[in-house]
């Protein structure tokens, strides 16, 4: 395929002389005498191809990671920016505490269901990440406007569900985007930044909205969602590059077909996905995540345990409005500031995780080669023990004769423990079945969100009936349920995978 003068002037990405001539032959029927079709597969031009996201500069990768983190924090923060205004919602719409909590619960349900649609959609080469991220985020911003102005309670719940649903792509695919741009050994390091912001997001919401709600009412807190996310969606639209390698090569193949007029120049993903039917896509979206979870006991345990932990985490923060205003006399804004302890806890968690990665695991890998996925669970082995201690410390130190800082130290301990558990599991899951990472995350997100919805609704009545000490002690006891399971997963995880009916299939 010698280029003409016109083609020779084109950029390397569009120059036919750079096509990787890797033929893929496919026989027509069973007649070996028939001529075979040959497709030429477009690949990276070299190991240093600048269009490969893995080869981007450190600065470009950092900018992409920053945008993903900001996007994720905005969506998660929007979930809890509603919470400081719940009392106002109760008064305006004449509903009780449990119905008012539905404003948070349905949002969480929305971003639990969304990944089942958006995770597999982003894996289609012709779609990629950005065609999922940006249009849905635009819808998120647009729907946030009527959410702040709605005049009836049913409409508020519907709009909160829809904003959660359309905000979910970053929660489903953010980790996959991190994997697009960083090599395998570095993924746990940079994934921890993304994990930290989605972990901190629900906590930062009350900090942002607390004083606004106190001064202007509950609608003002929802307007802040619009003001924060509208500039961000514009930033993503103009500054976030596509990170999906399949999508980049798909578009490269399309350019080359247009330039050369040849129809046999294809990306590998086009060949692989040519036979996919709508049923296949639906299967991958809805059935595959559940199939893996049911057939693999290790995956089933991690989903159950993280769901329990996540639900307890959400339930726990329902205690804040009952503790700091009533026992310590904090106003709404000051109560929101208590959530800043979660940011401190995330920084401590990242420091512990990095220490384990850089001082033990990475040197071990360089010396002895890749380790089993269970080695990623080591930080969680300590965290499952300290988690309960943090809950007990908070529950039994929230008294008027004990300074409020003591209870917040308990918050730091339990949030640090939660962070280490989730970070370890989020690295462990895709390493167990790399091919099905999107399905694993979608199933985990759905399980966590469904359980969190239930916990949000029963948390306030639980604290009112059992008291803060009794309610938090119950949560601490429930968190102990996973201790033996986490140690068993660490010790027998490889054996469980070998016995998994999904792995054998």
UniProtKB/TrEMBL annotation:
Region (Disordered): 1-35
Organism: Trichoderma simmonsii
InterPro entries xref list: MFS, MFS_dom, MFS_trans_sf
Transmembrane segments: 62-83, 95-119, 131-150, 156-176, 188-213, 225-249, 298-317, 337-356, 377-396, 402-429, 436-459, 471-490
CDD domains documented for this protein: MFS_Tpo1_MDR_like
UniProt keyword annotations, A-Z: Glycoprotein, Membrane, Transmembrane, Transmembrane helix
Membrane protein topology class: Multi-pass membrane protein
Stretches assigned to the Major facilitator superfamily (MFS) profile domain: 63-505
Coiled coil regions in record: none
Source organism superkingdom: Eukaryota
PANTHER family (alphabetical): FLUCONAZOLE RESISTANCE PROTEIN 1, MAJOR FACILITATOR SUPERFAMILY
Protein name, per record: MFS domain-containing protein
């Amino acid at each position: 395929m010698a280029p003409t003068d016109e083609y020779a002037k084109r950029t390397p990405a569009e120059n036919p002389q750079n096509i990787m001539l890797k033929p893929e032959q496919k026989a027509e029927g069973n007649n070996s005498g028939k001529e075979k079709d040959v497709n030429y597969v477009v690949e990276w031009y070299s190991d240093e191809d600048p269009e490969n996201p893995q080869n981007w500069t450190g600065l470009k990768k950092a900018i992409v990671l920053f945008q993903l983190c900001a996007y994720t924090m905005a969506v998660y923060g929007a979930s809890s920016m509603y919470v400081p205004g719940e009392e106002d919602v109760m008064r305006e719409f004449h509903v009780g505490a449990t119905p008012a909590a539905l404003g948070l619960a349905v949002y969480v349900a929305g971003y639990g269901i969304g990944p089942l649609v958006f995770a597999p959609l982003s894996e289609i080469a012709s779609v990629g990440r950005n065609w999922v991220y940006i249009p849905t985020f635009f819808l998120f911003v647009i729907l946030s406007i009527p959410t702040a102005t709605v005049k009836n309670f049913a409409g508020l719940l519907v709009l909160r569900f829809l904003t959660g649903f359309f905000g979910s792509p970053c929660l489903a695919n953010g980790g996959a985007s991190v994997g697009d741009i960083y090599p395998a050994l570095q993924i746990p390091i940079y994934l921890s930044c993304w994990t930290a912001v989605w972990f901190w997001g629900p906590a930062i919401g009350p900090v942002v909205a607390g004083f606004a709600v106190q001064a202007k009412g509950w609608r003002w807190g929802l307007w802040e969602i619009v003001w924060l996310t509208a500039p961000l969606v514009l930033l993503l639209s103009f500054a976030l590059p596509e990170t999906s390698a399949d999508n980049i090569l798909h578009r490269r193949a399309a350019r080359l077909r247009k330039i050369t007029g040849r129809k046999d120049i294809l990306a590998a993903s086009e060949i692989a996905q040519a036979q996919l039917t709508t049923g296949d896509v639906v299967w991958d979206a809805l059935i595959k995540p559940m199939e893996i979870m049911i057939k693999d006991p290790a995956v089933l345990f991690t989903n159950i345990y993280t769901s329990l932990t996540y639900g307890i985490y959400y339930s726990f923060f329902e205690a804040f409005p009952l503790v700091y205003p009533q026992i310590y006399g904090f106003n709404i804004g000051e109560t929101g500031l208590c959530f800043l302890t979660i940011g401190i806890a995330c920084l401590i968690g990242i420091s512990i995780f990095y220490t384990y990665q850089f001082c033990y695991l990475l040197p071990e890998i360089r010396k002895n080669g890749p380790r089993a996925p269970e080695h990623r669970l080591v930080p969680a082995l300590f965290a499952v023990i300290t988690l309960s201690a943090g809950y007990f410390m908070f529950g039994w130190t929230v008294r008027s004769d004990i300074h409020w800082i003591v209870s917040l130290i308990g918050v730091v301990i339990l949030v640090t423990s939660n962070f280490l558990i989730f970070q370890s599991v989020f690295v462990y899951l895709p390493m167990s079945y790399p091919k099905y990472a999107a399905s694993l995350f979608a199933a985990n997100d759905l399980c966590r969100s469904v359980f969190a919805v239930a916990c949000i609704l029963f948390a306030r009545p639980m604290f009112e009936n059992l008291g803060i000490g009794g309610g938090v002690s119950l949560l601490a006891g429930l968190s102990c349920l996973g201790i033996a399971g986490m140690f068993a997963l660490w010790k027998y995880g490889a054996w469980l995978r070998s016995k998994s009916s999904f792995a054998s299939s």
